[in-house]
Amino acid sequence: MSDFYCDEVLSGKTLVKKVIETPDVLAFFHTRPAYPVHIVVIPKKHIPSLLDISPQDEPILHELLRVVRAVAAQIVVEYGACRIITNLGAYQESKHLHWHIVSGDRLPIA
Predict the structure, then answer these.
(1) What is the CATH number of the domain that holds 92?
(2) Is residue 82 part of a domain?
């Protein structure tokens, strides 16, 4: 199964506008935003989903949450509110752990 985040974003094939980058985590503006503000936060290591985090991955999870928190705090300052979303199972289109941090009303489907 294809993994957009590993195959395209982390490989550099698809260029993204970075928000925050650490050695283990990348936050960037979504390439096909569904909201006026739509940022994705991913681990640089391939972890299929929240349910697949191993004990060895817990430091990465903590770093991921620090970045999610920093991005969310900035969006709340700039826009007044945000949602933090992750999906599992059939709802998870890309099988790479990621969080969406969004603000505003959902955009019409193009």
Answers:
(1) 3.30.428.10
(2) yes
Residue 110 forms part of a structural domain: no
pLDDT tens figures, 5-25: 999 999 999 999 999 999 999
* Known active-site residue 96: no
The answer to whether 75 and 103 have CB atoms below 8 angstroms apart is yes
28 in any annotated domain: yes
CA dist list (Å): 87 to 10, 22, 60: 20, 23, 18
> Is residue 109 in some structural domain?
no
> Is the entire prediction scored with pTM above 0.70?
yes
Which residues sit opposite 43 in a β-bridge? 25
d(CA 98, CA 49) in angstroms, rounded, equals 8
Task: Specify the DSSP element, H or E, that contains 42.
Answer: strand 37-43
Q: Which of 30, 38, 62, 98 is catalytic?
A: 98
Range of the domain at 74: 4-103
